[in-house]
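ok so for the tutorial part 2 we go from a plain amino acid sequence to predicted structure tokens. step 1 is just haveing the sequence, like this:
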Amino acid sequence: MTTLQPETVPTDRLALLPLAVEHAQEMAGVLGDPSLYGFIGGTPPTPPALRARYERLVAGSPETGVSWCNWVVRLGDEGPLVGTVQATVDGGEAAEIAWIVGTPWQGRGIAVEAVRGLVGWLTARGVRSFVAHIHPDHAASAAVASAAGLAPTGEWHDGEIRWRLQAPSGPPSLS
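step 2 — the prediction. this is what the tokens look like for a chain of 175 residues:
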């Protein structure tokens, strides 16, 4: 059972960069708007708290066969960090995914592009099942999930709707 290590994932307008502890300072600003936590709970992290969290994430999952794949989302090659995407991959074929984009960059299709990049990268590495949990009132996240190919299942988990994408089996298409 192979664990995955995040690599840089380029998209048309973005670069998904493997999470590094050094991203904490800039990301604390990106994640600093309290309105980001209306549906997911919590409060904006302080730079030291985010640094400690990133240290744990970069260290990787303590569970055998589970990969923690985390990226920061950079606008362009040299632009600011604008959000994160993440996947917990269990057994190499199933991933639970999540995303967040800072308030100033929302409404520009950045989350959709980042999630599509994430799903494409994981699919190319054999992941076939994707799940996201979305609050039933969070229309923006539902729109991102739908645009990335996920569909609501009608199943609930901790007050959120489970969304799923089942990729075709076999090698990924190169077309």
